[in-house]
Amino acid sequence: MGGFFDARRRRTLDLMVPGSTTDEFDVRMMAAGQAVPAEAEAVEGAAAVDRPWVTVVWDDPVNLMHYVTFIFQKLFGYSKAKATELMLEVHNEGKAVVSSGTRDKMEHDVERLHAAGLWATMQRDE
């Protein structure tokens, strides 16, 4: 019998293979459309737990500057001046940190930015 649903089930089960490396898991999660940290880091004691996560927006050749500014205002509630400053940082430096907080919140922010068509990742704050 098999068919589409069996193949889909196998793909889902492949995502949960015990003993797979972090890199393999990250690739699988990205293929499944999940938010994945830019750098998968091992938790290093209490100091790592205290460091917040950040959302990083990357420069892309597709989105116009005024659109990126608009998205920053809409999603994060930034003033036009702050949103423009962040947009220029993305444009000139290639990336900018646009939010920080808990891992769950940063995953949510990355998903919203992806839905708006922007390139975004999350990572531990440096």
Topology (elements, then pairings):
Elements lengths: L3 H11 L7 H10 L13 H6 L2 E6 L6 H12 L3 H14 L1 E7 L1 H13 L3 E6 L2
Antiparallel strand pairs: 1-2, 1-3
Helix pairs in contact: 4-5
Function: Involved in the modulation of the specificity of the ClpAP-mediated ATP-dependent protein degradation.
Subunit structure: Binds to the N-terminal domain of the chaperone ClpA.
Keywords: Hydrolase, Protease
What can you see in these coordinates?
It is a single chain. It is built from six helices and three strands, in the order αααβααβαβ. The chain has a three-stranded antiparallel sheet with strand order 2-1-3. It has a domain at about 55-125: 2-Layer Sandwich (Ribosomal Protein L30, Chain: A), CATH 3.30.1390. The termini are far apart. The protein is of the alpha+beta class.
